[in-house]
Amino acid sequence: MNILYLNGSPRKQASATKKLADAFVEGMLKTVPESIIDEITLYEKAIAPCRGCFGCWHATPGTCVIRDDMDSLLPLFRRAHVVVWSMPLYYFGMPSTMKAFLDRLMPNNSPLFEKRKGGVRHPQRYDAAAQRHVLVSTCGFQESERNFEAIALQFDLLCDDRVSKILCPAGGAFATDHLGSAARKRLEEVQNVGADYTVSGTIARDTERALSIPVYDPDRYMAVVNRLAAIAETPAPDWMGARPSPQAHAVLAAFVARYREDPEPERALTIEFAFSDERSQAALLCETSSCTIEPAPDERAAARIEADVALWKRIVSGDTSISDALLNGTLKVWGDFDAVLRLEDLFVGIEV
Ligand SMILES: Cc1cc2nc3c(=O)[nH]c(=O)nc-3n(C[C@H](O)[C@H](O)[C@H](O)COP(=O)(O)O)c2cc1C
After folding, report:
1. pLDDT tens across 212-264, in order?
2. In a mutational test of the pocket of ligand 1, which residue from 13, 91, 222, 338 has the highest number of ligand atoms less than 8 Å from its CB?
3. Count of alpha carbons within 13 angstroms of residue 73, beta-carbon side
4. Which atom, in ligand 1's list, is nearest to the CA of 89?
5. Which of 147, 174, 283, 342 would staple 298 via disulfide (CB 3.0–4.6 Å)?
6. Model pLDDT for residues 33-75, shown as the tens digit of each residue
7. Start-end ranges of CATH 3.30.1050.10 in the chain?
8. Which residue out of 11, 89, 168 has the highest number of ligand 1 atoms within 8 Å of its CB and is therefore the one to mutate?
9. Which helix (H) or strand (E) is 189 found in, with range?
């Protein structure tokens, strides 16, 4: 089976969507291991916009007048049994280079009009009757409704309904190398769906619907996103390197004592801990086999978490979670919240 796997995210290898598309393709390979995969990162390619000159219809039928990377991509497209379109949702549609790629498929069409599937289409110049398509997309908002409809319909029209879809909202859950358990579970599901797809040639509607449920509770996701955005509007205070009191130091020491012995492969992480009632701060430097208390601010810090000493005590003893405290306004986070989420993996009994 020839699989053309198009990565249409400007974030290239860091794409959240690519995590889902990778899982799907890995699943396909489980059942059809001898497949040929052409994985193309579109934002690394030279793909000029279509000029609308119709040269590929009249002057040089079947060949575009522009010489760029589409010369090598068009044959890959034509020979593909399955095209996997992986892209983030941009303003309810597709990112610009993916759209440029799509428009440049015009040489595949003949200028003739034909009635097909209840509409008018141009016939393909190659035998596309058995070609199938899979649209994989993530978006930033936590809901699929009133968000994915336009791109879903565009692909239905484009692919004569030979398209299956994996449309996953709250894509932030996949925008990190250290995925939470819910995101990891979704990737496993998508991998299984990929394995079935090569056998059935489709994704059942119910499965599509299940995959478009956000991996996090949508209301809570939105509340956390908004709270972090509001906090980011004001700069994090620098309390001039003031050292923590013995009580605050005891909190930090409790974190160190909870550092997990069964490490994730890649652990390096520095987090600033700030104690708002005493305006002191320190950093925890998490490394492969050790966790140490360092003076803060620390330029390596991925995030800063600020709460009073009493709240920190409750967090370290598992009485409350970091996100509950964030949502009730008693705790602040600046920087990379994904780094904060990792605290659950790094420290025993800490709930984010
Ligand atoms: C220009 C732009 C437009 C976007 N438009 C939408 C949108 O219409 N709806 C939405 O939910 N998210 C939107 N997003 C968020 C992205 O879809 C989201 O961050 C996605 O998960 C990124 O995936 P990637 O890492 O694969 O690029 C937009 C992001 C950008 C940069």
Report:
1. 999 999 999 999 999 999 999 999 998 887 899 999 999 999 999 999 987 67
2. 91
3. 28
4. 17
5. 283
6. 999 999 999 999 999 999 999 999 999 999 999 999 999 999 9
7. 246-346
8. 89
9. helix 181-200
Q: Cis peptide leading into 297, omega within 30 of 0?
A: yes
Q: Please work out whether the CB of residue 9 comes within 6 Å of at least one atom of ligand 1.
A: yes
Q: Where are the beta strands (DSSP E) in the chain?
A: 2-7, 36-41, 82-88, 114-116, 119-121, 132-138, 163-168, 269-275, 280-286, 291-295, 303-307, 332-335
Provide the token pair at 222: 């939105």
Would you say the CB of residue 8 lies under 6 angstroms from ligand 1? no
pLDDT in tens, 178-208: 888 899 999 999 999 999 999 999 999 999 9
Thinking of the domain 246-346, which architecture would CATH place it in? 2-Layer Sandwich (3.30)
Rounded to two decimals, what is the model's pTM?
0.94
Q: Taking the CB of residue 182, how many other CB atoms lie within 10 A of it?
A: 13
Assigned CATH topology for domain 2-215: Rossmann fold (3.40.50)
The closest alpha carbon to 193, from 169, 210, 181, belongs to 210
Find out whether the beta carbon of 94 lies less than 6 Å from any atom of ligand 1.
Answer: no
In this prediction, residue 211 carries a pLDDT of 97
